Amino acid sequence: MGQSPRNLREALRKAVWIVVWLVFLSSPVHDLVSGDHTTGATVAGWLGLLAFVAVYLSLVFRNMGGRAYSGRTLGALILGLAVVATVLCLTLGTEWLGLYVYVSVACGAALPLRMAYWTIPLTAATMVLVGLRVGERDAMDLVLLVVLIGFAMTGVGQLVRTTIELRKARATVAQLAANEERLRLARDLHDLLGHSLSLITLKSELAGRMLPGHPDKAAQQIADIEQVSRQALVDVREAVTGYRRPRLHGELAGAQVALTAAGVIAELPAEPDLTGVPEESESALAWALREAITNVVRHSGAGRCTVEVLHRQTLDGPVCELSVENDGSGGSGKGPGNGLTGLTERLEKAGGSLEAGRTKRGFRLVARVPAGGAADVGSGA
To answer: How much is the CA Rg of the chain, to the nearest whole Å?
Structure first.
């Protein structure tokens, strides 16, 4: 909601949701095919009806997709709807009063709240005035529907706008988090390298001054420089490794967001038990979860995805097991792809293993890594 369709499936879903409400056009269509009008009036009626429906669908579809028209264009299109509805009602009869329902819906769904609060009653009043000319009783029967459905659509429009704002806010939060992480890495590198590089510079200058008269002392300074530089290299590698190493808690949160955005029902552990699991093993599980969720979102066409983190006791010792199962019909093709192959190598480096394949209920991926401490068989988070 509040987002343009990304594929044909989403476009059809939005279209069905909107087109089903065209049921109120049954009266105008029946009037045109009844043969009660002249040929010219019938042709004009069909052209007017098609133009009305085209403008209406454009207004509502774009509003639900998050790419609403600008203020002036929006006002002109809604005014055009009202004018076409009025002309068709006055010229073709009372069967066309239902068009004001769509004018009211457009006002409620597309206009800002302050404008919708007075344009919806104005639409109903216009319909009553036109009804005095073509059929007062029919207009009175529709007036309550016009008002209620218009104000109901204000709620839908507000929900769409709120969804768009929340999506933008989430993107902003993600960007701020990324910027904060970059600043953290910059601070860590500064703290790690600032002292080491200053010491290397000082000892280099000292060695340069000692070299002509005291080569043995200069050699000692150079040895100190080598030791400091090696330690600085180790510190930088550790900092970068910690920066790039994913954590399972973070990947679970990202998986929840990705599955929800893809319309997949997600069942994930809130607090997985990682007791005794080394950082390297946890990182391997996090990579496995990321790859599995990517495959679910992109290729599976699943409606439900279940993630479990369990501790098990095996013949090789205690292991931590990550299971990702979905009910999708899409698979991994004739053989393992590059993602699963690379994931298998990563898990094997951490002393673990990977199993992936189809089941009766869909597709299941199981990643196992060694867990340092003892664990109860079958206990899970």
So the answer is: 33
